[in-house]
Amino acid sequence: MTENVDAQPMPRGRRPWVLAMFAALLAVAFVGFVALGIWQVQRMAWKHDLIARVDARVHAAPVPAPARAQWPTVTDESDAYRHVSVAGRFMPDMESRTQAVTELGGGYWSLVPLRTDAGDYVLVNRGFVPSAERNVEASVAPPPQGRVMVNGLLRMSEPGGGFLRHNDPARQRWYSRDVAAIAQAHGLPADRVAPFFIDSDREAASTVWPRGGLTVVKFRDSHLSYALTWFGMALLTLVAGGFLFASERRLRHDRRR
């Protein structure tokens, strides 16, 4: 007597439209990942060029700070961290203190307007003053009297405030060096205030606060790792596509047997 044995079901291939959909998604993902990788490579080239230009500016001899006629053309890309000089007289009764964290710890920047020889105003960051030291106020030197020459790095205004903290001009609480807001709080004419401030150089012989020369000239440069990540994702999409079509081919081959 012959027993009937249930036939094993033959493997079925995926529907063509499903394969087409997956192929289209993988193609879009591949193109997108490659485009993002190329963009990061371009950003890396731009960043390296910026670092080289800024490094050259920082170590160059001081040049006159942009005059009022040049202010509209001053930009972060073309002028930030340029070593400049400006002459004038400090206005010590208009000091503003902005929260700061440096290699010396927490404290504040001492910002004082300088009235230039041309009658304009430039906000000067005289330097850092720590808040943790005892009796630190007694060792803070007031701005020098009379006409002075200030050398330092040109910095662009920092509007708004700090991380999760907004400047409060009414209470003179500053978390960023917002030139326009600080000038307005002191009643300076807006059209005569430079749109930048100057981080003053450190005076080698000075043993008192504020201490200049603490500007951090450092740029984050992670573009290579980002580019490798995106290119790696593009490679994974190729691997996934190869696995998908190899699997479909095997299913169709088993079905024909």
Number of strands: 9
The ordered H/E elements are: HEHEEEEEEEHEH
Q: Please give the order of strands in the largest beta sheet.
A: 2-4-5-9-6
Reported for the largest beta sheet, the result is: 5 strands, mixed, barrel
Ranges where pLDDT stays below 50 over 5 or more residues in a row are none
Distance linking N and C termini: 28 Å
**What proportion strand?**
15-25%
Q: How big is the Rg?
A: 31 Å
Q: Give the overall form.
A: elongated
Percentage of residues assigned to helices: 25-40%
**Multimeric state of these chains?**
single chain
Number of helices: 4
Structural class: alpha+beta
- Mean of residue pLDDT? 86
Q: What does the model show?
A:
- The protein has 257 residues and is of the alpha+beta class.
- Helix content is 34%, strand content 24%.
- The strands form 2 sheets. The protein has a 5-stranded mixed β-barrel with strand order 2-4-5-9-6. Strands 7-8 form a two-stranded antiparallel sheet.
- A hairpin with a 4-residue loop joins β4 and β5.
- The chain is elongated.
What distinguishing features does this structure have?
257 residues; alpha+beta; elongated
Q: Which helices and strands occur, and which strands form pairs?
A:
Layout: H1 16-58, E1 63-64, H2 76-79, E2 83-90, E3 96-102, E4 105-116, E5 121-130, E6 147-156, E7 161-162, E8 165-166, H3 179-185, E9 193-200, H4 223-256
Parallel strand pairs: 1-2, 5-9
Antiparallel strand pairs: 2-4, 2-6, 3-4, 4-5, 6-9, 7-8
